[in-house]
Amino acid sequence: MATSQDEMKLTFRKFKDGENKWSSMHDKIFVADTSHKCPVYVHRTPPCQGSCPSGEDIRGWLQIVRGIEKPPKGVDWHEYAFRRSTDANPFPAMMGRVCPAPCEDGCNRNEVDDFVGINAVEQFIGDTAYENGYKFEAPPLTTDKKVAIVGGGPAGMSAAYHLRRRGIASCIFDDHEKLGGMMQYGIPGYRVPRTHLDHEIQRIIDMGDIEVRTGVRVGRDVSVEELEKEFDAILWAIGCKTGRGLPVPGWEGTPNCISGVAFLEAFNKGDLKVTAEKVVCVGGGDTSIDVVSVARRLGKISNLNPKDRPEEVIYGHTAHDAAMTAAREGAEVTLTALFPREEMTATEHEVRDALTEGVTILNEVMPVEVIKNEEGRATGLKMAKCKLEDGRPVPIEGTEFVLEADLIVAAIGQGGDLEGLEDFDNGRGLMDSDQFYQVPNKPGHFVAGDIIRPHLLTTAIGQASIAAESIQHYLNNEAQVKRPKVDKHHFNLLAKLNEAGLAPVEFQPEGDLRGTSSANYAIHNFEDRASSEIISHDQLFLGHFAYEPRHKRGEKIPGADEVLGHFEERYIGLPEEEAQAEAGRCMSCGLCFECDNCVIYCPQDAVYRVKKDEATTGRYVATDYTRCIGCHICSDVCPTGYIDMAMGE
Residue 645 falls within a domain, yes or no? Predict the structure, then answer.
C-alpha cells in the first residue's frame, strides 16, 4: 500500500526546503470517491490452465490463434501457436483428440453459455504442425551427463523432450517394438491416428542426443546396477501395464477372462482381428469404453477355430489372419458399471458414442461370480444389482442374474509390472515419489506417470516436465526449488517485452525515486499473481460476453448397423476460420484482451492505450494517476478481471 502524504517522512533523499510536498491535485481529487484506490493490472492464472495437469498456457495459445497476441517478426502465427502450446506438452495432435479435457470443465465460459472447445483448437494446432512439418528447436548440450529414461510412453517421451530443451541428453529404454506406451498400445487407432502419433514421437527424437533402445526390459535384459554405472540419473516412467482381474470366484485361471489392457494391446499390435460372439466388459472408465467400442468394430466369426479364440491371440499364442475379417459378423457387447451413468468415470461423449455404436450398458450392477462349463471356460458372468456402503459396492439380495459371455474383460484398474525391480515396489505394485518426483531414499532416481498412480495421459506428461527440471537441479548439484502454489507454464510479461524489443532499461539510482509511473526501468502498475492465484468467474464482468454457440468438430460415429469394420478416424478437425472463431470465444480470464472497455468508460480519461510502438500483450493500457479519481468503473467493466483497485490509501 502506498504511503499517504500525511505519513510521509523525509528519508535519506535530499530535498530543498518546501519541496517535500506533492504539487499535484491528488488530495483534492480523491475526495470525489470513497475507495481512495486506483487501478493496478493484475495477472492471474485462468481456471482452464489451473485444471490442466500438463500445465499448458491454454489462454496464451488461444490468444495467438484468435489474433490478439502477435508473434515476433518473421514468425507465422500458426508456428507461434504451436511453440506456445508445446512449451508444456509436445503432443498437441494427440492430446487434442484423446484428452478428457479437465480444462473445459474448468472453463469460466461455462457460466455464460458453453465451454471453449479447447481440445478442438489444440487438435487444429497439432494437425497444422504436422502438415507444415514444424520441428522442435534443440539447444546445445549444457552438460556431458546423460539420463536413462525407462519407458517410452507419454511420461518418458515428455521427459526426453523437456530434458533436451534444457540441454541434457537421454537414452530411452522400452520393452516394446515401438515407442508411445499407452498412446501406441492402449488407445485405438480410430481415436489416435498412428500417422500423427508416430510423427509427434519422431519430432522429439529428431531433436538429437536422444538415444532409443527398444525391445529392452530393464530388470531382465539390463540391470538397475548397469544403468546406474552408465548414466548419471534414471527416470522411471514404466507406466501401469497389468490389468486387475475381477475379485470374484471363478476368475483366476479361466482362459477367456482377460484384462482390458491386454485386449487393447493385442488389437493395437494388429494381432487381434475378431473377437467373441458375446463379450462382457466390467468397468465404467475410458478403458472399458475403448474395449467395448473395439469389440463392436471387430465383430465375431461363427464356428471360430479354437486356436483363433481371442484369448489365444491376447496371450500371444497365435495371431489372426487378415483374411478372417471378411467373414466377421456383429458381436453382442455389454458394458457393466457399478455407478449410475451420470457418475461413470468415462467421458460423457464416449459413453454416448458407445451407445450409438450398439453397446448395451448396464449401470448400478456388480459381478458376483464367473460361471464356467466342464471345460473350465467361462460361459457367463453372474451379476447383481448393488448399492454403495462406506464407498464399497454391496450386492442386493435376490437381484442376481447371469449375462451369457464367450469373453469376459476386466477394465477396473491397472497396476505396475515391477518384476526385476522389486526394490522400488512400495507394496502396492507402484513407486513412491516426493514433490519433486524423486524416488525417496534413492538418490539419482526419479519417477513420473502412471507408476506413481494411474491417471490421465496429460498428468503423466506434466509430471515428467517437473521431473526433468528436478533432474537438471540434481545433475548440477543444486538444491531443488520450491514449487509454486499454481505450478503451471505461465505467461511472462517481462519475457514478452524482451521478445518485442521493449525490455525495461537498466536501473540507475539517480534523482527522485518516488513512484515508477513515468520510469522506464520498471514494469509500470503491473502485478503478477499467476503463480499463486486462479481467477474465478465471479471476478469477471460476464455481462460483456454475448451468447455464442460453440464451434464443434465433426464426428464420424457409426450406428449399430455400420460399426462393424469401421476404423475411420472419429474426429473431423476444425477448418482454420472455425478454429479462430472458437479461440475467439475465450474470455482471456486474468489477462487483458484489448476490449477497450476501461478506456471507453473512464470518466476522467485517465485510462489510455499504450502507444503502438510500446504496446504488447499485457501492456495494452495504462493509467494516468494525475487524472484518476478512484471511481473503479474501469475495474467494474473489465471482462477479464485484469484490473484491481489496489493502488492508493
Answer: no
* Domain assignment of residue 3, yes or no: no
348 vs 22: which has the higher pLDDT: 348
Tally the domains of the chain.
Answer: 3
Q: What angle do CA 120, 185, 236 make, to 5 degrees?
A: 95
Of residues 399, 296, 289, 410, the one with CA closest to residue 341: 289
> Which H, E and C letters describe 385-402, residue by residue?
EEEEECCEEEECCCCCEE
User: What pLDDT does 323 receive?
Assistant: 82
User: Would you say residue 556 lies in a domain?
Assistant: yes
374/255 same-domain check: yes
List strand residue ranges (DSSP E) for 373-529, in order: 378-389, 392-395, 401-404, 407-410, 414-415, 445-447, 526-528
Which residue segment(s) compose the domain that 105 sits in?
52-135+546-580
Whole-number average pLDDT of the chain: 91
Point out which residues pair with 380 in neighbouring strands. Answer: 371, 404
pLDDT of residue 631: 87
DSSP per residue, 256-310: TEEEHHHHHHHHHTT----B-SEEEEEE-SHHHHHHHHHHHHH-B-TT--GGGSH
Helix (H) or strand (E) holding 582: helix 576-583
Element at 521 (helix H, strand E):
none
Of residues 229 and 318, which shows the higher confidence score?
A: 229
Distance CA 213, CA 216 (A): 6
Going by C-alpha positions, the residue among 346, 300, 292, 399 that lies closest to residue 100 is: 346
Is the per-residue pLDDT at 75 higher than 90? yes
* Residue 320 phi, psi (nearest 5): -75, 145
Residue 175 C-alpha cell reads as 520393452
Q: Backbone dihedral region of 152: left (phi > 0), alpha (psi from -120 to 50 degrees) or beta?
A: alpha
Residues 284 and 320 sit within 8 Å (Cβ to Cβ): no
**C-beta of residue 466 within 8 angstroms of C-beta of residue 487:** yes
The pTM assigned to this predicted structure is 0.91
CATH code of residue 216: 3.50.50.60
| 65 occurs within a structural domain | yes
Query: CA-CA distance, 108 to 4, in Å (whole number)?
Result: 38
Q: Is the pLDDT of residue 511 over 80?
A: no
Instruction: Evaluate whether 606 touches 627 at the Cβ level (below 8 Å).
Output: yes
- pLDDT average, residue stretch 638-646: 94
On the question of pLDDT at 29 being above 50, the answer is no
Q: Do residue 303 and residue 270 come from a single domain?
A: yes
